[in-house]
Amino acid sequence: MILHDSRIEYHKPVLVDQVLNALNVSGSLSIVDATAGDGGHVKAFLQNMPQDGIVVTIDRDKDAIQRAKQRLQDFQDKCRFVCANYSEIDRVLYDLEIPQVDGVLGDLGVSRLQISNPEKGFMYMTDGPLSMKMTLDSGPDASDVVNNYSQEEIADIIYKFGEERDSRKIARAIVKSREQKKIKTTGDLVAVVKKVVSGKYEIKTLARVFQALRIYVNNELEHLTRFLPNAVAALKPGGRLAVISYHSLEDRIVKNFIREQANPCICPKDLPVCVCGKKPVLRAVGKLIVPEKNEIADNSSARSARMRVAEKI
Q1: What is the pLDDT of residues 168-216, one digit of tens each?
Q2: pLDDT by residue (tens digit) across 17-75?
Q3: Contacts (Cβ under 8 Å, ≥6 apart) of 308
Q4: By Cβ atoms counted within 10 A, which residue in 78, 158, 249, 304 is the most buried?
Q5: What is the pTM assigned to this prediction?
Q6: For residues 191 and 183, what is the distance between their CA atoms, to the nearest angstrom?
């Protein structure tokens, strides 16, 4: 039995009312929160769904799953908790013997409790081991990247995943610094970046460098690319997919996917009729959804949130 601990300050979910509306939660019997974190959106689903509704609660972080179980202990019979990567939604539903669902949410943000843990090395504001891995699976962590990758590889990662214009200067500084001493902690990396960029650009540059390493280490964009078609396959006809992204790289992938699934025809534009036979799978629902000013004031995590919604045809 999981005991309630009132001392835990759970991560506050973003765009809750907009998500409830987008997924038609009040009329849904089955929803997947594919990136559940501490279960904030899940709790809102369960409070607004029909009495016999269920929520499949997925997160790749086992600690997040445990927090969600604790937070949702009053709804245990209506939840299915699974520790898995959200890109594996198809396997998760197969194992649970759930053929299709009414709605799927993918909130691509990182839980505040997870990202603020110094031991996981996500933050440039606090010193800790330079890891940035969401899970303990195989593959390089951030320390491996900055200490072992070539200058060109590091520059490419920082530019591609952080959209940082000084990526080459920063990579050069990293390589020069590691020749003297291994870069072991977040503080070590911060000190190197500050040698290159200072003043009013310092904080934004640090955020972009850390974002780039986190995205690369956790294969975040690859998992998103795999998740989207699997999520659509998991939906019943008329079911809805909502994806909340937090930077342009994610949002661009989501926007292009919905556009391609809504307009899949590959025929030359000068053909009077479609002959390729590709039929639309999705239709976009509404426009890009962003938080209101009052939500941003109340929850800084919502500041960069952007949600796109699509319905399965």
Answers
A1: 999 999 999 999 999 999 999 999 999 999 788 899 999 999 999 999 9
A2: 999 999 999 999 999 999 999 899 999 999 999 999 999 999 998 888 999 999 999 99
A3: 242, 243, 245, 251, 254, 255, 258, 284, 288, 289
A4: 158
A5: 0.90
A6: 10
Please check the confidence at residue 2 and state whether its pLDDT lies above 60. no
Q: How many CB atoms lie within 10 A of CB 168?
A: 17
Length of the chain: 313
